[in-house]
Design brief:
The complex is a heterodimer of chains A (110) and B (118). Chain A is mainly beta and 110 residues long. Chain A contains no helices and nine strands. In chain A, the strands form two sheets. In chain A, strands 1, 3, 4, 7, 8 and 9 form a six-stranded mixed beta sheet that branches. A three-stranded antiparallel beta sheet of chain A has the order 2-6-5, with no helix packed on it. Chain A is globular, with a radius of gyration of 13 Å. The chains are: A mainly beta (110), B mainly beta (118).
């Protein structure tokens, strides 16, 4: 059950766009359309941003979008805002009927 | 409004046991899978376990399999995590969260701290 691979950090300026990658294997990310993305601010519980690769829950800004190609999923954030500064995690269902998270990516909005 | 409220966190000695509870409200508890996810201080999210809506299917992360047991009481709308043979590396905030089938969690509780230390 190895964690999915995410970059440790990304950064961008207000108004810019960034992408966070999440790489797994054919037994998790590549094998199922059950990839989710979460935003976590310090001291807070995670918040669901994207589910089933590219779907946004009601109330989540359309500045957040998800996609997948092969064993790699991606979260894109457009029109960066100061409040987007947080930790971001991907998550996937696996062939072992378990769930695995990525190691997390710290987004800094400069 | 979906609410998940964890309780039972404490300071426990290595080798000890603890049972976490999660009281659910605002949704039909018996129709959802449920998860436990933990986060060690300053570290990332780590999935621990999940249970099917009727309790018939349970799965665990390798790090806790054989030591932790997930269960639920649908009549009481409560999720549990029995943790035995606790180790220092189990120290974390434990989150209760709701799931749907193979999807990851959608709603999360506020988390409860478990500290394993002598």
């Amino acid at each position: 059950q190895s964690a999915l691979t995410q970059p440790a950090s990304v950064s961008g300026s207000p108004g810019q766009s960034i992408t966070i990658s999440c790489t797994g294997t054919g037994s998790d990310v590549g094998g199922y359309n059950y990839v989710s993305w979460y935003q976590q601010h310090p001291g807070k519980a995670p918040k669901l941003l994207i589910y089933d690769v590219s779907n946004r829950p009601s109330g989540v800004s359309n500045r957040f979008s998800g996609s997948k190609s092969g064993n790699t999923a991606s979260l894109a954030i457009s029109g960066l805002q100061v409040e987007d500064e947080a930790d971001y995690y991907c998550n996937s269902y696996t062939s072992s009927m378990t769930v695995v998270f990525g190691g997390g990516t710290k987004l800094t909005v400069l | 409004e979906v609410q998940l409220v964890e309780s039972g966190g404490d300071l426990v000695q290595p080798g000890g046991s603890l049972r976490l509870s999660c009281a659910a409200s605002g949704f039909t508890f018996s129709t959802y899978w449920m998860h436990w996810v933990r986060q060690a201080p300053g570290k990332g999210l780590v999935w621990v376990s999940r249970i099917s809506n009727d309790g018939s299917i349970t799965t665990y992360a390798d790090a806790v399999r054989g030591r932790f047991t997930i269960s639920r009481d649908n009549a009481e709308n409560t999720l549990y995590l029995q943790m035995n043979s606790l180790r220092a590396e189990d120290t974390a905030v434990y989150y209760c969260s709701r799931g749907v089938g193979g999807r990851g969690p959608d709603y999360w509780g506020q988390g409860i701290l478990v500290t394993v230390s002598s």
